[in-house]
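Marked as duplicate of an earlier ticket. Keeping the data here for the record.
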Amino acid sequence: MLILYNILQIVALIVVGSLLLVKAILTPKHRRRLPLRLGYGLDRQLAGRKLPAPRLWFHALSVGEVASSRSLVKAMRAALPDAAIIFSTTTESGARFAEASLAAEVDCFIPFPLDFKPSVARFIQRLAPDLFVLVETDFWPNFLDGLRRRGIPALLVNGRISARSFASYHRFRIFFRPLFRAFAAICTQTAEDAERLVALGVSGRRVITLGNLKYEAVLPALATAAVVPEDFGLVADRLLWVAGSTHVGEEEVVLRVYRRLLPRFPDLQLVLAPRQVERGERIAALADREGLSASRRSRKEEGAALLILDTIGELAALYRFCDVAFIGGSLVAAGGHNPLEPAAFFKPVLFGPHMEDFGEVSRDLLEVGGAFEVTGEEELFQRLCLLLADSALRRECGGSGGALVQEQRGVTDRHVALILELLSQGKGGG
């Protein structure tokens, strides 16, 4: 298959090579990176840099993959302070993000080589890594074959195969199977991903489920302060809804929903925690217009079933006590906030459609049943009615989300241990 791949490369270059070259010359970002991706100027780029052994080469396709790799790269720098860490990206945006976020950990940033045999050989020979770590995707036959020929182990981390990707991989498995087999080990995010790889013909001995590296950056530190609901003027045995990190335009919705819930759940308490704590007075005025009596935490007021948490650093403690949590910044286009904070306490989570900043973890929570998406006031009201009326449903939903969080704890440490094991085996190990 590799021979056919290279023949097709030659044919493609003959047919469209001149057009691609013109496009590269006329496009500044391609013009800057093309010579380097072919290997020209690599020696100049590495000149004067000390790259002691062991050498770890991390590769991330673009911004998303760089984000996945950050915790692992930082942890490897801490574990091997004297090692050389090389980091490559395929896209220019990925390169900028990597250089901005990993400058303190990486010894050398480079573009990833184009998958031509001479280019690949030049990079591998010049860098001579002890281990190559590919983050999530960007498989190239000549490159992986070049590593294999030099006895350099390759590790795939944060591997994930969706149902749609699995169908494509299975259809063209005669091409993809050798690519997957080129890795000494493949670390998957979930057991289901691992099962799909085995179904594609990858040896189960090479496939390890270690979790999703993206979680490490957003997993919350569990609040350990010895506090009780009464410290906030709340009653411990009454239902509690916490609406956390809310933005302008959301407090009105939350307060209207709360007013509608009170006839059905007269003992329901609400903690409304604005993202900007200085907006506490304005929110108190909004509550007053809805006919709701509110206390403000910043003024040490107590006695109302509605508490405006206009202080910093106390929201996590209240997630521990709540029955249901709503994540703000999600009903308005603000990107959302971390849904794992309440999920870590085994609480059911609600959020709106704008969770872009936490897209992957929010999708995972939805998939396991630990969260529900609501599009506006009516859906928020209806979903809260169901959850507040059914303690078994709350336990089931919160348990699913909490289990997901627990599975992801220590994911970086598990990856570090595997990398150290592969390095200890030396080149050609696996």
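See parent ticket for discussion. The mean pLDDT is 91.
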